[in-house]
Structures are given as C-alpha cells and as structure tokens.
Amino acid sequence: MIEDAENKDGTQEDVENMLNPKQKISNDDFKKVKVIGRGSFGKVYLVEKRDTKAVFAMKVLAKDVVAKRNLLIKTQGKESRNCLRKP
Questions:
Q1: CATH number of the domain bearing residue 36
Q2: N-terminal to C-terminal alpha carbon distance within the chain
Q3: Euclidean distance between CA atoms 56 and 59, whole angstroms
Q4: Number of domains in the chain
Q5: For 8, how many CA atoms within 13 A lie in the half-sphere containing its CB?
Q6: Is the whole model's pTM more than 0.70, yes or no?
Q7: How many Å apart are CA 27 and CA 6, to the nearest integer?
C-alpha cells in the first residue's frame, strides 16, 4: 500500500537519494509491478524506476503500526523491569 507512505495530511514525503543527495526521490518515480512480500509492518513491492527502467524492491511500512508496536515494546519493557525490582 503505497498510500501508507503518505503523511497523515495526505502529502507524500520526498526521500533523500543516497547516490545523488541533490536529487530527491518519491513514490511517483517508481511503477509498482507486484507485491513480493507481506509482513506485520507493511509490504515489499517489486518496482521499476520510470526513467531508467531499473528494477528494485521497495519496502513500504505503515508508520502508525510501527509507532504503536514500538511504544508497546517500550512499555512492556518498563513493566517487566518494575516487576523484577526487589523491595
């Protein structure tokens, strides 16, 4: 779900291009070919870069799910430490 990469207000974020930092990359630069993997945090797509026709794998994470799970893990860790504390 490419839509999960959008901000809550519906705008898309540009991502820094590690090979050419002056050029920004967005989802619009790629064509989704098919879903090649699914997980609890999101999906992995086979994508084709529109200008070069190069093929890549793109992992799309649902930010809200990642944030919830991370907070839950941190909370669980604190609770278990409190249970192990000696009086």
A1: 3.30.200.20
A2: 49
A3: 10
A4: 1
A5: 3
A6: no
A7: 10
